[in-house]
Design brief:
alpha/beta, Enolase-like, domain 1, TIM Barrel, 2 domains, seven-stranded parallel beta sheet, three-stranded antiparallel beta sheet
């Protein structure tokens, strides 16, 4: 299976709520690129390159990175995933989101060539579905409570509350949402680095009265001492996100036991291969992990879902349903039902590329 094509297509998806924001950014659209890799015998695979500035790439730089990687792939055997990814790594440091898209496309292609679901490449499944945690954007407490009610009425049982560092206002957000959704809904917090360690400890001890399961990245990503201090000082599970941007960073976090858990994200870590390795690091250190926010196309969510269903340590809801708040997704075949995502049938990732008007029929990915 010799790689003959690497096609990159821009992918801009509008948000249902153009005012959606969190502590690090706000944008009315989600941008990225769909990567298609095809071989000389007609097999193809797809990956989604997420253009996320706070992870390191915007659409222009992402396209340039993918163009740089193209000659390292063309003419090479698609079976050799390890060798190809090592070549990308040797050619450029960083560019994790571009590397992730290529990694996912190569895994998708190989699974489809074998006629098996993607999860078979990771050892098969330990579950066939995962509960989905949905994110509540930063708004006034009553508005966030209203949005929480809508999601709960649609079957979601896990919610993540975005906060931005104002202790009193953030506690009010949690209190309003808990009062609205009742005692049975799981609540988590995501501060996106917006607290100082002392403010994080104050806020989380107050929020604990309203029963929150975990807090994601309460302090700056490079403040590992502050992160460890918060972890030791609050009764809530503390999870790293921005601090877990590479395998080396995940290793440092778990070796120092600076957190209770790690949010693993395929675009940030550089692909399925690295994300699987990061999960094994967590398992070896008895640190919890799950699949974090996969914001983008259903294609990205499907890749993450196959991995989540193969990892025995995933014991909490994953953030793989954010495509549900986006419009214009070029892929179909994956929907949240009763607050869960179930593995799609078919080879590869199991989602389908919608055919453009007048184009050739839709293809599976």
């Amino acid at each position: 299976m010799i790689i003959r094509e690497l096609e990159v297509t821009s992918c801009t998806m509008r948000k249902e709520d153009p005012a959606w924001r969190f502590a690090l950014a706000a944008s009315p659209v989600t941008e990225g690129h769909v990567v298609r890799i095809a071989t000389d015998d007609g097999v193809e695979g797809f990956g989604y390159a997420s253009a996320t500035a706070h992870m390191g790439s915007i659409p222009g730089t992402l396209a340039a990175e993918l163009a740089l990687f193209r000659p390292l792939l063309l003419g090479h055997d698609a079976h050799g995933i390890e060798a190809l990814l090592q070549a990308l790594e040797a050619s450029m440091r960083g560019a994790q989101q571009a590397k992730a898209a290529i990694d996912c496309a190569l895994h998708d292609l190989n699974a489809r060539a074998l006629g098996v679901p993607l999860n078979r490449l990771f050892g098969g499944t330990v579950r066939d579905s995962v509960p989905i945690l949905r994110i509540l954007a930063i708004k006034a407490p009553p508005e966030m409570a209203s949005q929480a009610r809508k999601l709960v009425d649609r079957g979601y049982r896990y919610l993540k509350i975005k906060v931005h560092g104002d202790v009193d206002e953030d506690v009010a957000r949690v209190a309003a949402i808990r009062a609205e959704v009742g005692a049975d809904i799981h609540l988590t917090i995501d501060a996106n680095q917006s607290y100082s360690p002392k403010d994080a400890i104050t806020a989380l001890n107050r929020m604990a009265e309203h029963r929150i399961d975990l807090v994601e990245q309460p302090v700056a990503a490079d403040d590992l001492e502050g992160l460890a201090l918060v972890t030791r000082s609050v009764p809530v599970t503390v999870e790293a996100d921005e601090a877990a941007g590479s395998l080396r960073e995940v290793f440092t976090l778990v070796a120092r036991r600076a957190v209770d858990a790690v949010s693993l994200k395929i675009p940030k870590l550089g692909g399925l291969r690295n994300t699987l390795a990061a999960a094994r690091l967590c398992e070896a250190a008895h640190i919890r992990y799950r699949l974090g926010a996969a914001v983008g196309s259903r294609l990205l969510a499907a890749h993450a879902l196959h991995l989540a269903c193969s990892l025995p340590g995933v014991d909490y809801a994953c953030e793989l349903g954010e495509f549900d708040r986006l419009l214009d997704d070029p892929f179909t075949g994956l929907e949240v039902e009763h607050g869960e995502l179930r593995l799609p049938a078919g080879p590869g990732a199991g989602v389908q590329l919608l055919a453009a008007e007048g184009a050739r029929p839709a293809r599976s990915a």
